[in-house]
Design brief:
The complex is a heterodimer.
Chain A (H helix, E strand, L loop, with lengths): L3 E4 L2 E4 L5 E7 L5 E8 L3 E10 L2 E4 L6 E3 L9 E3 L8 E8 L3 H4 L2 E2 L3 E5 L1
Chain B lengths: L2 E3 L4 E5 L4 E3 L2 E3 L5 E7 L5 E7 L5 E3 L5 E5 L4 E6 L8 E8 L7 E2 L3 E6 L1
The chains are: A mainly beta, B mainly beta.
Amino acid sequence: NAGVTQTPKFQVLKTGQSMTLQCAQDMNHEYMSWYRQDPGMGLRLIHYSVGAGITDQGEVPNGYNVSRSTTEDFPLRLLSAAPSQTSVYFCASSFGQGVTYGYTFGSGTRLTVV
Amino acid sequence: AQSVTQPDIHITVSEGASLELRCNYSYGATPYLFWYVQSPGQGLQLLLKYFSGDTLVQGIKGFEAEFKRSQSSFNLRKPSVHWSDAAEYFCAVGAGGSYIPTFGRGTSLIVHP
């Protein structure tokens, strides 16, 4: 099994550009989440999904959109990139509630906005 | 709402020495508790988790953690550290009814030869 796959691994954007960070899992996990990691801030939740067609906002959702049309995929869209969105982004998935089963993480996407 | 505090930003130990990383949580009832490890340039890997029962939990890579309700703590321990344990360690807490765990800010472990 590949687990949680994130693409791309690295990306440089100009301010105002849009892009989509891809996340796919092959474990038939119901729960998927996007986090951003910044130095000294730990991981902060952006958006999460508890199943196909169901998404909700996390702690820092502004500037990001998500959708969940299939169980496997959970893309994160940046509509108009800003330097404040420079970060490392992690996608994670869980069989059930993350509080019960723990999350499997992807290897991350390092995004720089100039 | 739940919260978690990792008081130590950096911890430095010598290889072969014992290790204890601190984690304190805030929640009114018994929470779900986790420790994750992140090696440089990698995602997070689950080390161990606690839900209920025995307060001493064994995890992978020789790590263990002890839940102490009276101190609202869930400290991570290892009796003898290896150079490969150098990494960032995250404590996370989740409460029943909440889908998503909350992560601490992390503790960076440095291992001297």
